[in-house]
Amino acid sequence: MEAEQIKEFKEFLANTKQVNELTQYRYCTWIRDLDLNKLSQEYLNEFVQGKGNHSQIRGAVLNFLEMTGLNKTFDMPPKSSGRERKRIIRDISHEEICIVRDYLYSQSFKKGLIFDLTYQGALRRFEIPTIKMNSFKWLEWIENMDQPCHLTIQGKGNKQRTVLINPETAEKIFNHYNAKYTFKDMDEIRSFANSPSLLFGKLTVHSIWRIIHGGSLKAIGREIRPHELRHCRATELERMGVPIRDIKVYLGHSSIGVTEIYLHTSEKESIGNIQNILNKNQKG
User: Fold this and answer.
1) Which of 8, 9, 33, 119 has the smallest number of CB atoms closer than 10 Å to its CB?
2) What contacts 177, CB < 8 A, 6 or more positions away?
3) b (16+ CB within 10 A) / e for 166-200
4) Per residue in 73-94, pLDDT tens?
């Protein structure tokens, strides 16, 4: 496929489908070998099946067909009956979390904070570079600094959700910028709280992978994948007693079961439930 077509496909994924940077790269890599001169139903079937017929190649081809308007002309081959291998999500102990966190903070404040926010907010990698200063509810948190700080996240499909950041971590961030700018009065604090500047400046999803993956390997002798921190946080919340429907809201999952449809769980209710439980565990 021509470079210009790959560029157009990447722009379609970013602007129309709002796909994150990493998935854009993967989809473009898969679709690069597609020969449009040979395009037929038989060729498309052989192409997808020859690449493994997994979710990434299917996603790449489906999106390309949609962009070109060929999705009504061609059908995708049947899905594979099952995966040949499953990604193993390993247990991560609280002690290991603390060791990796301390190691990364010893490297730099930025690295430690990336780990803390990823874990506490159960964030996806592509969500972290979008965090701004005003994504945090600083003024509300300052009124009661013993409470978690609310952080608004721009998730999949440009949907927003709220996660909770431990008061200790919120205080670290606030003190870091207070030391940098030396806030003299409340007006300067408000200016900081309302700033639309990015928290981490220019940050790529690949660099987040390197920080967490490489840092954990050096700190505890085995790698932790960033996405494993989402699983770990979800498990931790469940063990604290947070209802599964609230965990789904917290993680920003779009597929909510029939029970959740009937319950009509709102984000406000879910965040309130999680905050109450976190407060109880903190006091205990």
Assistant:
1) 33
2) 192
3) bbebbbbbbeebeeeeebeeeeebeebbeeeeebb
4) 888 888 765 544 445 556 788 9
- Contact of 115 with 149, CB cutoff 8 Å: no
Instruction: List the Cα angle 248/252/258 in 5-degree steps.
Output: 45
Q: Which residue has the tokens 């809201």?
A: 249
**E strand or H helix at 151:** strand 149-154
pLDDT digits (tens, 9 = 90+) for 208-234: 999 999 999 999 999 999 988 988 888
Q: How many CB atoms lie within 10 A of CB 165?
A: 22
Element (H, E) at 16: none
Tell me how far apart the alpha carbons of residues 155 and 143 are, in angstroms, rounded to a whole number: 27
- What's the rounded Cα separation, in Å, for the pair 168 and 181? 20
Q: Could you tell me if 243 and 273 are in contact, meaning their C-beta atoms sit under 8 angstroms apart? A: yes
Which of 62, 73, 76, 74 is CA-nearest to residue 9? 62
